[in-house]
């Protein structure tokens, strides 16, 4: 029997970066908010142990249990989708803090070009630059509108970094100085400059010095231990929701965190949500939590699935192009070339966002007139910290086992390092999310089905950017340079890139988008959907900074919505457009 609870002002589904920011901002304003998190609570104390690569990086301790809940996947509409049983192409975090606990810490602003990509591309290259099968569209917001929220996220997180010479629109310095430099990063910077490029030390949430943010939360200095990605930080030196926004929300007395609370649906009456239904996964009890405002702050895939299973919004149909929920699913194109060097480096030391990058081949910073793609990617050399199980690479002609493999692995462990690019992904009408007609979870709800394959745009961008990565390694003097090839078709394994976007996108037109620029649903105005699911395409940077900025703006929208007694939040008329 479902137990109906007392109504609250706001309820969030998921308590990671997005849910934590919403909780902190609305709780500080005196609003009562409940955060429902399907996983367990956690803090820095949970990671104060010997770093266990097998537990966290191989067996994915901090990720969703695929034996309990997964997705199905296919490349094309005429294929039957099958359940994903192994993580690879992306990682679905779970537990308090979500992916904000196990992220690397790259903290980027998307470029002005990203937010008005359709308008800017058409203006410069004509309307036929990409075939009509690509569902490219503007975001319904400009960089100038979002910039103050970007800076708010950075000040909360204490981001370390230095100014990008190719991003003149940024006026403010980072809250903390850039991270330490290293010999290998110096070598990369020198080579890039020799090629006429513009390298700089990238923005990082593995912060360079102790910092107290505007909410009074203190973050510690990075120890360069090399265990960031897929790991929690025991030092409290990696900005994450459990050491920043969640404690801020809790100290107000207006926020209640409920863990082990698996949301199965959004309850609604007509075009108004009335609350959510969830199961306590420890006791099996089922509850209904009424709320004035429902905020989805879960992972990209889970936001979309919950709307589809709750019959909220109009599902996207790739055959007609109608509908919006599930539309514009995008991946990120990870171009990689690895260099093998004569000199040894202390590659075992590092941090998730310790790196030097350049933007010369990102956004529209180079001419695409004679190229078969748009956009590009940031190109970075990182010193992540080598880990012995996953990162003992050797040249491709090395045997994969035996004495020779061991010798070569030892030789190249501190002599090899990749140059990588986070390449932009453009939406295509046949890449989308829907409900699977066959497979269900343990609660009887359909699994989410992903239909996705690499496009001609993806392959062209990948080939171009990979060649640029290889050029830099050659200029650095690598003895061997091995560019990685993109497979003909996308596969869910092996590991490639965590950054997926779309499915519940924002825009200016309710016919082609699910959300307005405050991430409020057009069709159900007391539901806000926050996360990378709102991105109309994927850019050339890590998405977390943009998720954080949009979350701060959405929090403002939620407060406006309550103040205006349930009216659709209106866009401020002070933005610059092209």
From TrEMBL:
Keywords: FAD, Flavoprotein, Oxidoreductase. PANTHER family: LONG-CHAIN-ALCOHOL OXIDASE (PTHR46056:SF12). The keyword Oxidoreductase applies. Belongs to the GMC oxidoreductase family. It holds the Pfam family GMC_oxred_N. It comes from the Bacteria. Residues 427-551 form the Glucose-methanol-choline oxidoreductase C-terminal domain. The keyword Flavoprotein applies. Residues 217-330 form the Glucose-methanol-choline oxidoreductase N-terminal domain. Transmembrane segments: none annotated. The lineage of its organism: Bacteria, Bacillati, Bacillota, Bacilli, Bacillales. This is GMC family oxidoreductase.
